Amino acid sequence: MPRKNPSKKPVTAIPLLLVGSDSAELDRKAALLTAHGYVVTRAENICYAEMFAAEQYFEAAVYDSSLDTQEQISLARIMRVRWPWMRLVRCGPMPAHADPDLFDAWSLSEERLPQDVESTLVF
Question: Of 64, 50, 57, 76, which is closest to residue 22 (Cα–Cα)?
Fold first, then answer.
C-alpha cells in the first residue's frame, strides 16, 4: 500500500464565474485562478453571466474591472436575489455610490485575487 504524503492538500475544484471583456488581463486572471484550483467559466458580458449562472452552479463570481461599474452593480443585484449563496468579488475598489453589502470582497491586485476569492468561501 503506498504511503500518503501528508504535505499534499487534497485538490478541490471550485466552480467560479469570471465576468469581463476578453483581454490579456482577463486571460492572466483566469490562468491564475485555474492554477489555484478554481474551475473557471468565463462570461464576456452580463448577459452571458446571467445565462451561465442559470445553467450551472458557481461558488463565486468575479467581476473584472473591464466591466462598466453600473453593469457590475446591476449584475450583482440580480445575482444577490437569484443566487444568494454565490460569493461576489469585485476587481478594484468599491464605487462610492454602491451598497457596501453588495459585494463580499474587493480584490485590489491581480496577484491577491485567488486569496481574496478564497476568503469569501465558507466550507
Answer: 64
Domains of the chain: 14-120 (3.40.50.2300)
CB 71 within 8 A of CB 55: no
Query: Is residue 64 within 8 Å of 26, Cβ to Cβ?
Result: yes
Measuring CA to CA, which residue among 51, 53, 46 is closest to residue 70?
46
Phi first, then psi: what are they for 50, rounded to 5°? -65, -40
pLDDT tens by residue, 64-82: 999 998 999 999 999 999 9
Assess contact for 106 and 94: CB atoms under 8 A. Answer: yes
Residue with cell 455610490: 97
